[in-house]
Amino acid sequence: MASWCYLNGKILETASAGVALNDIGLLRGYGVFEVIRTFGKRPFLLAEHVARLQKSAAFMNLTVPAGEDQIRHTIDELIKKNAIASEAQIRIVLTGGPSKDSITFDPNTPTFAILVSELPQLSQEVFEKGVALIVTENQRQIPHIKTLDYLTAVRTWPSAKVRGAFEVLYTCDGTVLECTTSNIFVVKNGALVTPKERILLGTTRNYVAELAQKNGIEVEERALSMQELSSADEVFLTATNKDVVPVVRVDDTAIGGGEPGPTTKRIMKLFYESIPYGR
Amino acid sequence: MASWCYLNGKILETASAGVALNDIGLLRGYGVFEVIRTFGKRPFLLAEHVARLQKSAAFMNLTVPAGEDQIRHTIDELIKKNAIASEAQIRIVLTGGPSKDSITFDPNTPTFAILVSELPQLSQEVFEKGVALIVTENQRQIPHIKTLDYLTAVRTWPSAKVRGAFEVLYTCDGTVLECTTSNIFVVKNGALVTPKERILLGTTRNYVAELAQKNGIEVEERALSMQELSSADEVFLTATNKDVVPVVRVDDTAIGGGEPGPTTKRIMKLFYESIPYGR
Question: What is the pLDDT, as a whole number, of residue A94?
Fold first, then answer.
């Protein structure tokens, strides 16, 4: 994390900023969040991220204590104050705030933090050669809301890394869902298929689906089986801090001959071309 | 919370103690905990709580950075320093600690906190007249481990209170599981039945089950159907900070004629008699 952060209305030194031990976000994992990246040091898809944050908050009986303009202004200030060199990754966290009894919270005193850091750079190899996934049976609870609940994600991460996987793919009873921190697309006969239900609808996912359709690529948003995934021509991931990443292996199954395919490459090109300050 | 707490090896003023904004307990809800009560200002079932904490920690690739003796010593110190007047409620929280990338943590730098407060006193009415539950379909993820994941618990709490319920009873496909922060027992023909799988095995639950058996009351630990619950002679809850509480209504169904029954009363009596410094 960078030296300065935003917490409950103030810009503070990150080293001295903290949440109370009775924060219900800490005691009960009760909160929601967003991760945003910049292009040209300007937050990308900010309106979509703020809208989702508000939706997540409402579901959890929380209120986002700042509007889009104020959030944008704070992000700009943090990017400048922290002298972000390349691009920024921004994390917005909203919890129920301090709790007197560890089970209730006062909606009027939430914990609202905005953290920035340099955007982690994925290696060129990731984009050029593609990545591997490992599969784990896991249906997230309240999947459509971006809650702090990443127990399974954090717990399965080390074993994924040991096995050389980029992310963990969650499946449930043979249905493909989503990955640790990304959404999944398959390509079959030039068309895209991506799950729609029981997952978090990523902002990059939504953006890429729309972008593909605008460029004449068919997109089906529907339940996707593991069998379809295994026999796909191509597979790729989308995520805020990963953009579009080709997948060339899922467990022991090579996808598309083990190399990124033409449709994935086209989507990656369309993605960066669509952004004024692209890579 | 009381004025003084323990955090990462030090006794600190609670008001100035906090966790960093990049604590994985806060960012990802990644941690485990225990709640302990005292009798005669001495922690009750401490060995059992510490053993469970160690088990929870191990499952989450965490290590409890203190043994039972050190934890007991710290609890004693906090009870004295905070001048706890009646009995104490103790909360031990262990998270993965600070995270550099929001997904991994260093097992060598966990966040380990011990908080004490006056034990919340339930009204005499709760014990004498019994309480109501409302039912919600919910299977907790990783239910056998006491993780920080209480999203559904916190979210459903206000509506339970509006409806006059003491706790929310979780069920899954007609199977009775557990309540927000307690375990459930039913009494049928003088014998106890309590769920065993897909729940957190409470320390008070285990203690009461053993106590009942020692006193000639049969206890079956097995899957329990909603139908059995509805037609039970009596129902009661067990929890660290509630002891044994009679249940007289589940949603719209009166249990045992709407009054605490004889077996429940006997269990309550046996419970306090079994403790040297009981109520």
Answer: 98
Q: What is the strand order of the sheet B42-43 is part of?
A: B10-13, B4-7, B111-118, B88-95, B31-39, B42-43
> Which residues of chain B does A24 touch, with a Cβ-Cβ cutoff of 8 Å?
154
> Is the pLDDT reported for residue B279 higher than 60?
no
Among all residues of chain B, which has the CA nearest to that of A20?
B18
B 175-194 residues inside an 8 A Cβ radius of A: 180-181
Residue A172: phi, psi to the nearest 5? -145, 115
Q: Which residue on chain A is closest to B105 by alpha carbon? A: A154
Q: Contact, B172 vs B138, CB < 8 A?
A: yes
Interacting residues of A78 by C-beta distance below 8 A, sequence separation 6+: A2, A4, A5, A6, A11, A88, A90, A114, A116
Q: Give the closest of B21, B30, B147 to A113, CB-based.
A: B21
Beta bridge partners of B73: none
C-alpha distances out from residue B17 to A100, A138, B10, B76, Å:
16, 36, 10, 19
Q: What pLDDT, in 10s, does the model give residues A99-122?
A: 999 999 999 999 999 999 999 999
pLDDT digits (tens, 9 = 90+) for A37-59: 999 999 999 999 999 999 999 99
**For residues B2 and B7, what is the distance between their CA atoms, to the nearest angstrom?**
14
Identify which of A21, A95, A120 has the shortest CB distance to residue B17.
Answer: A21
